[in-house]
Write a structure and sequence with these properties.
four-stranded antiparallel beta sheet, about 290 residues, 2 domains, elongated, alpha+beta, Alpha-Beta Plaits, 10 helices
Length: about 290
């Protein structure tokens, strides 16, 4: 059973996630209406389809995005879980509402390059906020997740395939220069989403193979405040070795290198990205 304090923190965290969902939806809608739509540059997925239909029929973009997304939410309801669908529904309704709010405002720019760059950045930040908060803005993402869980199709490849099809159709309808601008926007948006998801302090995992395991571990803990997992290993030629594993952020890599050089110049070090940390990650305040 959770104590009252823990329950309060849990409720506050959940409430904050919904605030971030709405904020992300607002940023994404601002990008679509003020940068992309005025230059006929498409986002991917349902939004891209909605922009095409809006240009051809004149039907409100906010209505189209909401109507087109509903079937995907219904399909994904059983497979993806109530919480994910509920958050996605909130994000989609907020997104549709903000599209209506921003539609009458003056366009930010008619310059295609500025629209691609700033539109892609604002859209990436908005979608990143939504994803970090546990939802999604586009029905094609729910399809990609569903296919991944049911048939093990990679989510990224599925979304990319859908978007390439959409951009190809857009090329025939509006000109292939618009399709190329749209594809460039998609890549910018994807990179920004990755950045928002991982954050500025993206975690790095360092694995250190050394003969001075205890000395390096103590130095890392004392000077950097990071705890270390100590493992035993054996090299094919070098024999018994100590393997240290620790998680730190990108700004601490240089300090780690310098620290290890002071203790063991023959140490072998590998550094890799960590996409996610689950559980308690202990860090004491460095002296």
């Amino acid at each position: 059973m959770l104590e009252n304090g823990s329950k309060t923190k849990l409720y506050m965290r959940e409430a904050f996630s919904y605030v971030m969902l709405v904020a992300g939806a607002a940023l994404a809608a601002f990008s679509i209406e003020e940068f992309l739509v005025p230059c006929t540059i498409l986002d991917g997925g349902i939004v891209g389809i909605s922009i095409m239909v809006n240009n051809l029929s004149g039907i409100s973009l906010s209505i189209l995005t909401l109507v087109f997304n509903v079937p995907f939410l219904i399909v994904g309801f059983r497979k993806l879980g109530m919480k994910f669908i509920a958050k996605s529904a909130v994000a989609m309704v907020a997104f549709s509402s903000f599209l209506e709010v921003f539609a009458p405002l003056t366009d930010m720019t008619q310059d295609y390059l500025l629209a691609v760059c700033f539109g892609g950045v604002f859209l990436g930040v908005g979608v990143g906020f939504v994803i970090r908060s546990g939802g999604c803005l586009d029905g094609t993402e729910t399809v990609a997740i569903f296919l991944n869980r049911s048939f093990n199709f990679p989510v990224g490849r599925t979304v990319l395939f859908i978007n390439v099809v959409i951009y190809t159709v857009a090329g025939f309808l509006f000109g292939f220069d618009r399709a190329m601008y749209s594809l460039l926007t998609y890549f910018i948006t994807s990179k920004v989403i990755d950045f928002v998801e991982t954050g500025v302090e993206q975690a790095k995992a360092a694995m250190i193979i050394t003969n001075e395991g205890r000395g390096i571990a103590d130095a890392i803990y004392r000077k950097m405040g990071r705890t270390v997992t100590i493992l035993e290993g054996e090299g094919l030629i070098s024999g018994k070795k100590v393997i240290l594993y620790c998680v730190l952020n990108r700004f601490e890599i240089y300090e780690l290198r310098q620290l290890i050089k002071e203790v063991d110049t023959s140490a072998f070090i590998t550094v890799s990205d960590v996409s996610e940390i689950i559980g308690n990650h202990i860090k004491r305040k460095a002296e």
